[in-house]
């Protein structure tokens, strides 16, 4: 998805209950910065990130990772990624093609995307990395198990390891989860080179996890460390805001400080993503009643819809697609709302959460996803929806709930 906003979080513990919170700090995204500078056309695929910090063992540096309900693995850059594979891959026996596949000692050298990375620079350079030699609780898996996670240009390749994960920065009271299997990335996509993101913390279900590993939050639940529920509150901030408090991520319970009573819980239609049924959609004079599979995704900065529907919505609300910047441009004073029927309730996304106001023009937080058949997700409800309504993720009962924020 396209990038609009980045959030940085430091975790703290709420005394008196097994609930942990991560306040979020807004930073300017790569996309916003590049549009302002006029260099956006050279780099049009970067996603928004909502970040928190975690530590692998007490002796290692914190990693700023994306909180992502659209995936289920934890991975961070490994020391090998930062040092790079240049010396190994430049050997004649690692030349791209069949020779590499047969003779190269590290098959990562055979990947076309990685060869491009080596020419344009190592995306891992400058990032905090994990060094297993400095971790007293690290456990190497008996058999090396490799992983590859790919979402367009967002990809990571490496191997799995086992260590204690601490949610939050050093000095704070943190949820400590031993025995967590995580990915040690030996190579990552170029998209990560232009931002401080140091990994992804997936919050989906185990059935979604690459390699079938137990996601970190589920590991905490299985160990009885935290209740099987987490929630997200996002504060409304302008697209150009920087360094401001942006909301809070709560795991182990409800956020009663920032969120009101739960309007309703909806059963998940499939417990992989946080996927549920979207019955109806209204915007302007457009009314659609076909029904779709939708997911709540904290790492997506727009409302993602099938391409045919995106065009209908844009026409209905007076937005035009700008092929240069790859956004839907809309009147900054538009009063457009998106009305989504989920279960027996209608959830309204207001203009303040739908329209990104820039310095010169405004864009609609809408993106085309192409088409999706079967039972996979067709709509992605990203931060415009999550900012409008607190999202409550009930892992134990496989339900998702929505609540109005007490603060806007």
TrEMBL record:
GO MF, one term, reads:
aspartic-type endopeptidase activity
Signal peptide region:
1-16
Q: Which GO terms describe its cellular component?
A: extracellular region; lysosome
Alphabetic keyword roster: Aspartyl protease, Disulfide bond, Glycoprotein, Hydrolase, Protease, Secreted, Signal, Zymogen
- Principal location: secreted
Q: Output the superkingdom of the source species.
A: Eukaryota
Note the PROSITE patterns from the entry. PEPTIDASE_A1
What CDD domains does UniProt report for this protein, alphabetically? pepsin_like
Here the disulfide bonds are: 81-124
- Where is the protein localized? Secreted
UniProt key word Cell membrane: no
**UniProt cross-references to Pfam families, sorted A to Z:** Asp (PF00026)
Domain called Peptidase A1: residue spans: 50-403
Please name the catalytic residues of this protein.
Answer: 68, 297
Membership in a protein family? Belongs to the peptidase A1 family.
Q: What is this protein called?
A: Peptidase A1 domain-containing protein
Organism listed in the record: Haemonchus placei (Barber's pole worm)
């Amino acid at each position: 998805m396209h990038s609009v906003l980045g959030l940085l979080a430091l975790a703290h513990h709420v005394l008196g209950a097994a609930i942990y919170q991560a306040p979020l700090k807004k930073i300017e995204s790569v996309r916003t910065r590049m549009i302002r500078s006029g260099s956006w056309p050279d780099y049009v695929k970067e996603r928004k990130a909502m970040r928190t910090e975690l530590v692998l063992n007490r002796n290692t540096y914190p990693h700023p990772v994306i909180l992502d309900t659209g995936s289920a693995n934890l991975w961070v850059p490994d020391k090998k990624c930062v040092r790079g594979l240049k010396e190994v891959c430049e050997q004649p026996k690692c030349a791209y093609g069949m020779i590499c596949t047969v003779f190269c000692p590290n098959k990562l050298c055979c990947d076309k995307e990685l060869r491009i990375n080596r020419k344009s620079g190592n995306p891992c350079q400058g990032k905090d990395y994990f060094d297993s030699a400095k971790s007293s609780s690290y456990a190497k898996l008996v058999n090396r198990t490799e992983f590859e996670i790919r979402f367009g240009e967002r990809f990571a390749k490496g191997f799995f390891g086992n260590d204690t994960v601490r949610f939050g920065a050093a000095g704070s009271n943190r949820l400590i989860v031993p025995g967590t299997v995580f990915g040690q990335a030996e190579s990552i996509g170029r998209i990560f080179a232009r931002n401080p993101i140091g990994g992804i913390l997936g919050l989906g279900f185990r059935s979604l996890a690459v390699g079938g590993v137990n996601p970190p939050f589920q590991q905490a639940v299985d160990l009885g460390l935290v209740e099987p529920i987490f929630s997200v509150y996002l504060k409304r901030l302008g697209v150009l805001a920087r360094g401001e408090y942006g909301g809070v991520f709560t795991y182990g319970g409800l956020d009663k400080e920032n969120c009101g009573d739960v309007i309703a819980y909806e059963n998940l239609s499939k417990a992989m993503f946080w996927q549920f049924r979207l019955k109806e959609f209204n915007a302007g004079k457009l009314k659609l009643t076909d029904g779709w599979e939708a997911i709540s995704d904290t790492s997506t900065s727009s409302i993602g819809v099938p391409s045919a529907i995106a065009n209908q919505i844009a026409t209905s609300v007076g937005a035009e697609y700008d092929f240069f910047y790859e956004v839907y441009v809309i009147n900054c004073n538009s009063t457009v709302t998106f009305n989504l029927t989920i279960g027996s309730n209608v959830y309204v996304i207001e203009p303040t959460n739908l329209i990104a106001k820039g310095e010169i023009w405004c864009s609609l937080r809408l993106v085309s996803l192409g088409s999706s058949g079967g039972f996979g997700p067709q709509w992605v409800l990203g931060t415009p929806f999550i900012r409008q309504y607190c999202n409550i993720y009930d892992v134990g009962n496989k339900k998702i709930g929505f609540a109005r924020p007490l603060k806007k």
